[in-house]
TrEMBL record:
Record-annotated membrane-spanning stretches: 46-68
SUPFAM superfamilies linked: Band 7/SPFH domain
CDD domains cross-referenced by the UniProt entry: SPFH_like_u2
Species for this entry: Nocardia amikacinitolerans
Domain of life: Bacteria
Keywords from the UniProt entry: Membrane, Transmembrane, Transmembrane helix
Residues in Band domain copies: 63-231
Name assigned to this protein: SPFH domain / Band 7 family protein
Keyword Transmembrane: yes
Length: 294
């Protein structure tokens, strides 16, 4: 079975007709009983009984009146059999003697608990995510799973755990996605949750990580590691720039014929320039009052 619209008509028209017919047949039944009580009129008694039966039937028909709120669906069952859903807002009349279950179609969000998981490198991390979803198939939400809200919560936590175990907290290799790559990780989490919740009639609109940190027992050690990695990266960048600047200076001196340097003096000049450019302290200039070779 799949989602289908249930039979429904305008509830105001049905209510108006119900009131008119109930008053008519109710009055007829009352007059019939009065006439039968006074004169013993058998045809009047039979008519009164028939009118009473009609009033009872009309009362049963009144059980089909239902109000559907905006962004809500009514899943309708007739003695256990699914006969359709009504998702249009308004006042309607459906098949009487049916069971109606309300399913909210509003957009909802759910935030997972802070989960402690080992990442792809085996480091314990704390991670949490927020999931934005809505029901798009009221039939699946009502009958495919026991409780679709609990199902979304469970699958969200499972997806977050799986995501954390397949990616490292920090990507130390080029081309490797880490948990800190927000857009890529969010898209991967959203796609996985859509696949997991489709069978429950749920559409996941967005899923994003809201909390990500190393577990407390290794947080300090990992902070030192991150700082060391940043220092190495900065030093590497400085050295690359300094080598480029030294190479450019030597090439310019040679091209413009400013000074002729042998290999030993070129090496000394390179060493001095690298010390000046790569040092983490300010250098003190020294004036050479003699010749270049003294």
């Amino acid at each position: 079975m799949k989602l289908r619209p249930a039979f429904h008509v305008n509830g105001f028209l049905v209510l108006l007709a119900w009131l008119v017919l109930t008053l008519f047949f109710g009055g007829a039944a009352a007059l019939g009983y009065v006439a039968a009580a006074k004169d013993g009129n058998m045809p009047a008694l039979i008519a009164a009984i028939a009118a009473t039966v009609v009033v009872v039937v009309l009362a049963l028909l009144a059980t089909g009146l239902v109000i559907v709120n905006p962004n809500e669906a009514k899943v309708i069952q007739f003695f256990g059999r699914y006969i359709g859903s009504v998702s249009e807002p308004g006042f309607f009349s459906v098949v009487p003697l049916t069971d109606r279950k309300s399913i909210s179609l509003r957009v909802r969000n759910f935030e997972t608990q802070k989960l402690k998981v080992n990442d792809a490198d085996g480091n314990p991390v704390e991670i949490a995510a927020v999931v934005v979803y809505r029901v798009v198939d009221s039939f699946k939400a009502a009958f495919a799973v026991d409780d679709y809200e609990e199902y979304v919560e469970t699958q969200s936590e499972a997806a977050v755990r799986h995501l954390a175990t397949t990616h490292p907290y920090d990507a130390h290799d080029a081309g490797r996605t880490s948990l800190r790559d927000g857009a890529e990780v969010a898209e991967e989490l959203t796609v996985e949750l859509r696949d997991r919740t489709e069978m429950a009639g749920i559409e996941v609109l967005e899923a994003r990580i809201t909390h990500l940190a190393y577990a407390p027992e290794i947080a300090q050690a990992m902070l030192v590691r991150q700082q060391a990695a940043q220092v190495v990266a900065a030093r590497t960048h400085i050295v690359e720039g300094a080598v480029g600047m030294v190479s450019l200076a030597l090439d310019r001196l040679t091209e413009q014929g400013v000074v002729e340097l042998d290999e030993e003096r070129r090496a000394a000049m390179v060493s001095n320039l690298l010390v000046v450019l790569c040092g983490d302290r300010a250098t003190q200039p020294v004036v050479n009052a003699g010749s270049l070779y003294s």
